[in-house]
Structure formats: structure tokens, C-alpha cells
Amino acid sequence: MSKKLAQRQIFAEISPITGQDILGPTLSGFFAQISGGEITAAVEKIYVGGEKFPEVLCAPSEVGDVTLTRHYSSDERTILRDVRKVVGRAYYEIKVYDTNCDLISNQSERVYSKALLVGLTEPDGDSSSGAPATFALTFAVSGEPTQ
User: Fold this and answer.
1) Residue ranges covered by each domain of the chain
2) What secondary structure, in 3-state letters, does 47-101 show?
3) What are the distances in angstroms from CA 146 to CA 48, 58, 65, 89, 142?
4) Burial 44-68, CB ≥16 within 10 A → b, else e
5) How far is CA 24 from CA 39, 69, 83, in A?
6) What is the pLDDT of residue 14?
7) Exposed, middle or buried by CB within 10 Å (0-12, 13-18, 19+), for 123?
């Protein structure tokens, strides 16, 4: 029987893709949350005259945007300033890891080899909260994930 994974056992890291016109800043370390990356295919339903049920035509699959979130530290202030300048222009490679209970993995589970940075969600502030501040990066993915 396979072991189930907790959400804390899945995390991601990114690295800028060299050789592009715009080289994004390096954000070292792991992201605490990953969401998105769903794979869907649009279909077209065609009703042939007199038929009760439609015929379904397939279309190519697409990978949804991937959003990575992590806790904000004051050390990342200058990095986020540089990230703001490359939204919509810099490509990154995203590696997603499934780990064991000790949070150790020998290899990445999914790799998005060409992901365009399309969004930056700045850290929110709240003077009455002690919760950690977070920021998020959203990427549009080209192609399907590989291993």
C-alpha cells in the first residue's frame, strides 16, 4: 500500500532560464505553497441534426497557470523590486518535489521547463495581525510538465 502525502511534503523551487532576452532575478530557496498547473482540454460539442446526444471533438490540452507562494522576509525586499521589472518578460524553470516524511526527495516530480512570470502578488500588511506575510508569483506554462 502506498503512503499518502501531506501537503507540507510538496514544495517547489524556481530558477531563471538563461539565454533569454530578459534574465529574471534568482530567488533561492523553496516556495511553501504551489497551486494550479491543472491540465485541461477544451472540447466542442456538435449536434448533428436529429441526434439526441452530441458528438464531441477534441482539442489540444493546456496547462493552467502555476502560482507559487512563500513567506516574505526583509532580505527579499530588493529581489522583489527586481521581480517587479520582469513580470511578463522573464522565463523560469519550476521544479516541484514530492518528499518523504523527513522532507527529503532525490528528484523532482514535475518540471515546468518554460514558465513565463505573469504575476506578482505583493505581501499584504495588517497592523492587527501577527500572521506571517507572504508573496506569490504566477507563471503561465508553455508545454506540459516533464519528470
Assistant:
1) 7-141
2) CCCCCCCCEEECCCEEECCEEEEEECCHHHHHHHHHHHCCCCCCEEEEEEEECCC
3) 39, 22, 16, 23, 12
4) eeeeeeeeeeeeeeeeeeebebbbb
5) 26, 17, 7
6) 93
7) middle
Give helix then strand counts, H and E, for the chain.
Answer: 1, 10
> In CATH, what is the architecture of 7-141?
Roll (2.30)
pLDDT value, residue 108: 67
- pLDDT value of position 106: 64
Q: How confident is the model at residue 74 (pLDDT cuts 50, 70, 90)?
A: confident
Are 24 and 14 contacting, i.e. CB atoms less than 8 angstroms apart?
A: no
pLDDT in tens, 6-65: 787 888 999 999 888 888 888 888 998 999 999 999 899 999 988 899 999 988 889 999
Q: Give yes or no for residue 97 having a pLDDT over 80.
A: yes
What is the rounded radius of gyration, in angstroms, for the C-alpha atoms of the chain? Answer: 19
pLDDT at 135 over 80: yes
Beta bridge partners of 138: 67, 119
